[in-house]
Write a structure and sequence with these properties.
By secondary structure, the protein is mainly alpha-helical. It has helices spanning 2-7, 10-19, 32-45, 49-61, 64-69, 72-75, 79-93, 113-133, 141-154, 161-165.
Length: 177
């Protein structure tokens, strides 16, 4: 199964080393769970190993500060993986939840299917966790609902969101929402 190869990859090791045993403050879920669930979703979507490996390193490149601080050469020796991760960053950062309401049509997608699959995995996983741990508790719950739903509609997965959530399993030892 390709996911096992991904978990042995240089990119997975980079994010696993970066996260260590740290957990999300509000949910208590280990940070690496986002990557593990994303890999499972990508496999379900039929994405290739390079997309999965790029997904592994996307948190290390997401913000400008992270990008400036990371040793790019240490993350991957695969130029396609790096290109996918950088394209992901470009598209994902073009519409964040702090930018206010937008319609799905306003969200730019990538011309690369692999990057759009990475976005699908990321947004499904993040919205699932939002619903489980933050819905109604987060100060901006209404805005975040609109944000995630716009993305999921634009990515063409809104109608199968629940089925995609079923691909992931709750992490062992996680706080229950």
């Amino acid at each position: 199964m390709p996911t096992e190869g991904v978990r042995r990859s240089r990119e997975y090791r980079a994010i696993a080393d970066h996260y260590g045993e740290r957990c999300a403050q509000r949910s208590g879920v280990r940070l690496i769970n986002h990557i593990d669930e994303g890999i499972a979703l990508l496999a379900h979507l039929g994405a290739g190993e390079q997309a999965m490996r790029a997904f592994c390193i996307h948190p290390l490149l997401q913000s400008d500060a992270d990008l400036a601080a990371v040793d790019l050469a240490a993350l991957s020796d695969d130029v396609v993986v790096m290109a996918l991760a950088m394209e992901y960053r470009s598209v994902a950062n073009a519409y964040s939840s702090s930018m206010g309401a937008r319609t799905p049509a306003d969200i730019r997608l990538s011309p690369l299917t692999a990057v759009n699959d990475m976005l699908r995995a990321d947004k499904v996983q993040n919205y699932k966790d939002f619903l489980r741990f933050h819905d109604g508790v987060h100060a901006h719950s209404d805005r975040l609902h609109r944000y995630f739903q716009a993305w999921l509609r634009r990515l063409g997965v809104w109608e199968r969101f629940e089925a995609l959530c079923a691909v992931t399993a709750p992490p062992a030892g996680a706080a229950q929402g």
